Amino acid sequence: MAERRTRVVHRWLWALGAVIAACLLAFAVVVGPWLLTQHPREGLTAEQALKASNDVRTTLVQALAGLAVAGGLAVTYSTYRQNQRDQADRRAEQDRSHQLNVARHVNDLYTKAVEQLGHDQAPVRLGALYSLAQLAQANPDNRQTVVDVLCAYLRMPYTRPEDLRILPTRPEDLLKRPTHQQQRIAAQELQVRLTAQRLLADHLRAPAGISGTDAQDLEPSPNEPFWPGIRLDLNGANLIDLFLDRASIARARFYRSTFTGTTWIHQATFTGGTTFSEATFTGEATFHETTFTQGAMFHKATFKGDASFNWAALGSATFSEATFAGRATFHDVTYSKISLSEAWVLNLDHPGYKPGAPAPRCVWPAGWSICPDPDDGTQGWLVSEGPETSRGPVIPSSES
To answer: For residue 376, what pLDDT band results from cuts at 50, 70 and 90?
Structure first.
């Protein structure tokens, strides 16, 4: 409809221009010479009067021709500009259509992959994980959404194959023994969850030669495997053999998460708030050279195995009411403030070590030492010997 109105307006403008051009031509050829040679006419011969009329006519025609050329140039420029605007509008419309088609295609792929995550066959779920990772790699704007889906999957309840084994101590327990099918399904689901963890770790690893802090300032790119600006919400997740080597993460939440097996967080950087409050580490937990820019919360965390924070930059950290059942070391840690108030240390007698073998030494931040429980010498709690903001060297625990 708009194009039709435009064509009608153009036809009227051309008609009006033709009328004006005819009037100007008539003025230049007839009216102008007669009008402009009326005064003075006395004393002019017929030949002189004719010459004067012709001179005026020539001048007017030349002026009219100049106007025509200028008008033609103006019309040509206007037409050129209009064509440019029309082409720009068409390109913009094509771009909008292309973007809508791409968005629709991406949404279809995303929806299909998310649906496949709920499939009862593990290979289908594995394919869905890879599809989501590839989708996020090609479309940086969708990365956080994909990460949220992977985190939600890891937050779903899960029972490991070894936890399904029930020793039949009573006759009725025979009915509770897991079937081979149940153990096979649990083993397959373990591989799916390990894959989800690995995909996250692969895309959170900072590029070589760039610090974890600077990595967060990089622009997301489909050509770079690292995904800056990612936030992890793994509260309550059951994480198994988690490896986050050189990871750079904007924010991470592991509240009440369970870390089974080995937890290896080495040279990682958490630039935003990070919490491991009430988390449980069943195996060895390593945080070597890890940086917590805005501090770390390990309030009421439980370390059933060895815990190592050697050379870590903890910022303002709290381990209040945490439980250390294995060896704990804080060699050369740096921090602005640290609290281990009411943190429990178990197994002070280090049971299970071979007779005569030296007991492993726990190393605590400066200003903290163990006060043994007067009723049970195998355990005690950490107490502060001075200001909790001390930056001094770490000291070994007194029980060793």
So the answer is: confident
